[in-house]
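[RESIDUES AND BACKBONE]
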Amino acid sequence: MTDRIAAENTSDAEVSDAKIRAQTRRRMLKEFWFYFSENKGAVIGLGFFAMLVIVALAAPLLAPHAPNTQYREALLLPPVWQEGGNWSYPLGTDAVGRDLLSRLIYGARYSLFIGVIVVSIAVAGGVSVGLIAGFFRGIVDTAIMRVMDVILAFPSLLLALVLVAILGPGLVNAMIAIAIVLQPHFVRLTRASVLSELSREYVISARVAGASNFYLMTRTILPNCLGPVTVQATLSFSNAILDAAALGFLGMGAQPPTPEWGTMLAEAREFILRAWWVVTFPGIAILVTVLAINLMGDGLRDALDPKLKRS
């Protein structure tokens, strides 16, 4: 009888703890959205980014044509609102008769894919290396940070070009090169956050309690360093899209006939004067997407940085 009562009390305590944790999470999410939504630009950026994700996922349903299908009777057709336009190709066609709207829609897939993969690689590697450098310090820290300084000494696009030239042109190699270029930013940011957290009381208490170095790094310190890393990841997402478009424009990134926005710009260079739409619409797509992501990054910074929160 006593054991059953004790078990019931334990179960009630667990349920109560679960409810408290759920309420805490809801309160934190509510507080996060309050500060994030105060930045109207961030809300607009989030809305556009959500729409871009939907467009990318539903590309086969939204695109009026296959992205690489060529219509020889419709070469360099202007947009529908210009004289000579055709409703079958709302934004016109390119030099080989491919529908521009369909290629832009499918290009959103490549841009999001590039951003996700590049940021994932850069965050995973940069946070791990920065955590090790900040925690162990000494010669390990010095060696790691000097390597990062060497990487940062080169212009990012130039270094990416060199790496792609070594690895070979292509989308995969371009993503690897961009991830390597972006990694030092995460290393430095994580290292700085770790150094500021090491002297905190909760870290000292965990160390005195006998926590291992691995536990201290991954379970105690790392969760408190993720706020700045999240903001940097958002901004790096837009940098990855820009750098991939630049490499594609230079012929070192995605290769034709891939409907990647930078590659589309490269293919349209010789038609700038007589077919403005083949250059303008991919450029606008890159501009608006990067702007929306940067606005989201500003909102995340406002919501996650305690120093920027207004009482």
Q: What stands out?
A: The chain has two domains: 1-34, 38-308. The first helix runs from residue 2 to 37. The chain is about 75% helix and 0% strand. The chain has a mean pLDDT of 86.
